[in-house]
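ok trying this again, last paste got cut off
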Amino acid sequence: VLAAGGPHRSHYLPLNYAARSAMDIGKSIEVAEGQRVQAHFALQRGGTLSGRVLDDTGEPVSQVTVGPVRVSRSGTFEPVGHSDQSDDQGRFRIYGLQPGEYVVTAEARDQGPEVEGRPEGFAVTYFPSAVSEHEAARVRVGLGDEAADLEIVLVRTRTFRITGSLTDSSGAPVTRANVSLLRVHGSGYTFGAGVSMSGDGLFSINNVIAGNYLLSVRPTRDPDAPPDTIRRREFALVPLSVDADVQDLVVTTQPGTTITGRVSFAEGTPAALPEMTVFAQTSDRLPSVGSTPQSTVGADLRFTLTDLFGHYSVR
């Protein structure tokens, strides 16, 4: 049994029954037919990070996305899903964090002014003013603790532009698609910049800082098409290394893959088959651009996974 504070008490950490901490799996509760059981929980307050985002002249910067990245015991970096946007005074506050060690990242997505004819912006910056997770200062928070007065000074940098076109496997322009530029970093992926598309398959991406990216293309449903229309679903996942403007990039989508298979049992098929679902889980830390990869196992123990594109492990 899991208890949580709810949407208006999100500074409390969820807790399993009889658990000593939010990371403890706790104990199960056996309930007989007609029995009523009282379960008591003592919810714990999470940790908090707060501070300000400044530019290189000391002025506050608003509308910057600030988020913590947890440092695991093995030294890897794991995004935790919490974030905040800096206000007009550059202030941010992130709460409800599990106890542990974090680095704090700030990402400003709007393009800055041109300097000597070249557009500039802010690089993704880690507290206090680093450009990589490994160079960042680590901040420790405990239950109910607040690490306050953190000042993140953004690093100014040159920005670039990516332009190109989308075509499908038959050579026709792709006029409807969900296109994302994903920035690759040590802890995974974040959105790199907004993508603008025209009706003839041309796209442009502004305010791109130097770094490694994945250009992800996923199909979208045509709202004008009849509901029963069968349409080929095609995808693309293109790695990009950006240190200058990228012009006339041609991206060609490809159909997704179907995986079929059968489940077997090491000690023989049981007389009463359990309900089973097969999942295709993304591997190699690459994002999935296909459909939700899962399939119910039939009475013949067979399964079918459709519209897959990327790297997966099947479980």
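PB: full thing came through this time. DSSP finds no helices and 29 strands in the chain.
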